[in-house]
Amino acid sequence: MERDYRLDVLRSISMIMVILIHVANCYCRSFGDINNLSYIFSVFINILSRISVPIFFMISGTLLVRKNFNKNKYLKRLFKILIPIIIWDIIYLIWEYFYLDVTYKNLLHLLVEPYRKHLWFLYTLIVLYAAQPLLSALMDYFDRNKYIRYGAFILCVTLCNLCFIYTDLTDTLSLFCYGGYFIIGRYLYETFGMGKKKINNLLLIIPFILVLIVDVYLSYKLSFREHMFYNVYYSYRGIFVMTLSLIAFIFVLQNMKSKKSNDFITLLCTYSFGIYLIHGIFLDITIKTVGCDIVSIIGIPLHSLFIFFTSLLTLMLINKIPKVGKYLSTYS
Fold first, then answer.
1. What's the CA gap between 7 and 249, in Å, rounded?
2. 117-130 average pLDDT score
């Protein structure tokens, strides 16, 4: 598959949104210590940015779930994720021990759960990579019958929302949910990315705005009713975030040129994986030194820009280290 500029744009935007989520989370967890306007804005940014993770999964599905399975490329990509996971788990262990005075005792637990929570995405991705041959075979089967393909699409959506509704089954079904995003991503790319179908932009923009408003309103009302921060409507597996993610994915696919190029987007895309890995360090520094003292409408963009640029510049320096740098800073 040729490099698609639209996927580069989606990946770059999603990477920035991940930083926004973690900064906004700091403000959201300060409920009661910040004013109402600051809290509402942080909830808005938090929910809007949640589309990033489903989009990351859909991009991965678009690129990886193919009818012609290539074993060599599969193993190469698998190790490109495995090695950074091991390295960055160790880096964060050392970082938190010296900077945050945190000691981690159960090292064997790292085999099933990441040390830093934001690395959960990579652990999940490893499992989905392992299931890639099966997912590719399923896509090959779906292509033979459009009704089966539509049914699979609906099933994926249903599974995702079962994970959200039945919270006691979340751990069991979450992999089905994210595997669903894999398949959905490939389906949407083949349908809208290749021009087979097109949806009027107003039919995408209006529902997006309405769903976002409803999600923000419900989250706001629940928090003030319970007098604490509640993120029950923030789930990546929930109907709100899923709807927003699918709409955003379709909108970019059908409104941007696939072969356009931009040096800045290429740079962001090249380092997006590394920024995802390293930004937690600069997030810790920001929280420890500044916290949420600045009103969120200024603080969230300001903190996010600081974390983004310091992460990017650090990675560009790390990338100059022979042989080692590429495992810490970039991924393609």
1. 9
2. 79
